Amino acid sequence: MYKNNTEVLARLAEAMKAKNPQKLNMIIGADGFVDEIVHVVDKRQDFENFTRITKIEDFGNRIARAAGLSTNLELVAALTKLGGNGPILSNALIEYGVGLTYVGALGNPNINPVFEPMAKRCKVYSLCEPGHTDAVEFTDGKVMLGKHSMLKEITWSRFMQVVGSPAEIAGMINACDLFGMENWTMIPHMSAIWRGLIDEVFPLIGGRRPIAFFDLADPEKRTKADILDALELIGKFESKFDTVLGLNEKELYEVAEVYGIAEKSGADRLAATTADVYGRLGIGCLVVHPTKEAICVAGGEYYQQDGPYCASPALTTGAGDNFNAGFCLGRALGLDPQLSLALGVSTSGYYVRNAKSPTAEALLEFVGKWAEGKI
């Protein structure tokens, strides 16, 4: 459809100038974390100055050398910010001007201060206290150390108690363009919430088909039976929604293993695995975002988009959620899958360089510079 990446970026810029995200209405949930971005000290010169461990392998080796002995690792807080798949996704969409309702773990009885700026820009329903994550950042990835116990309070009954009856929830969904319940892995009762929606809300939904977006969020710690059950439930959303499942590359291979899909090898491993997993899901779209590119299968067609890779990111925690925000925005605006992928990688590309999500204006400037080879 497009000759090259320059044409993709030019068409993306044209489309974004012609579209108005402010006309969109989205409902997102259901997690919430206070994220503390931390660096690991390698060598400290004095109280103010140190060199950090920049590679995950070096961090792992430092820990491994302590086996049978002990060790001391110093963590230096670089930033405290709102976290969780749902809030970061929502914050990025809000920057684009989307009208948004957020349901999640933002604080109880009062909104936690890290979520107050977000709460001033959208409608919020808070279910419980947020979790806490130490996001240990490296130049080649991150290690997320989380405290999740409070998320057990997020149940279907609590959801209805705070948000409203099934009829009221159905009314909200009928008026939205995109609906998403994120971070299945860390919310113990998320599958039960999805069942509540399917059993009690679906019969009350009619007419238009909003997009439903799901992010499992690293399901490695959940059992095979739990993961298969969640994937089956996601498949049931296709009856009422245009359903999208977003995975990173690690999650893709984990889901493939759960399905019993034979492990692939070679240059086409990513594409072949994505196609096989898509064939098992029974939904409209599967999107996968490795570090340097993004791919999706939508309506049975395969799409690939290179990303604006950044070797020295300012912030990586939340990059995947920013990709998802850009991709979801593209689909909600009616962009084709190729342009939606380009919007996704541009959003995350801007985020990792600037440690914040782009506005529509900043995104257009970034896309222009990328097209000119100036980023």
Q: Give the fraction of residues assigned to helices.
A: 25-40%
Mean pLDDT: 96
E-strand count: 14
Structural class: alpha/beta
Uncertain runs are: none
Our measurement of the CA-to-CA distance between the termini, rounded to an integer number of angstroms, reads 25 Å
- Numbering strands along the chain, what is their spatial order in the largest sheet? 6-5-1-9-10-11-12-13-14
Coarse morphology: globular
What's the total helix number? Answer: 13
Structural features, described:
This protein is α/β, with parallel strands linked by helices and 375 residues long. 39% of the residues lie in helices and 23% in strands. The protein is built from 13 helices and 14 strands. It has a 9-stranded mixed beta sheet with strand order 6-5-1-9-10-11-12-13-14, with helices on both faces. Strands 2, 3, 4, 7 and 8 form a 5-stranded mixed beta sheet that branches. Helix 1 runs antiparallel to helix 13, helix 7 runs parallel beside helix 8 and helix 11 runs antiparallel to helix 12. The longest helix is centred in the last third of the chain and has 18 residues. The protein is globular, with a radius of gyration of 20 Å.
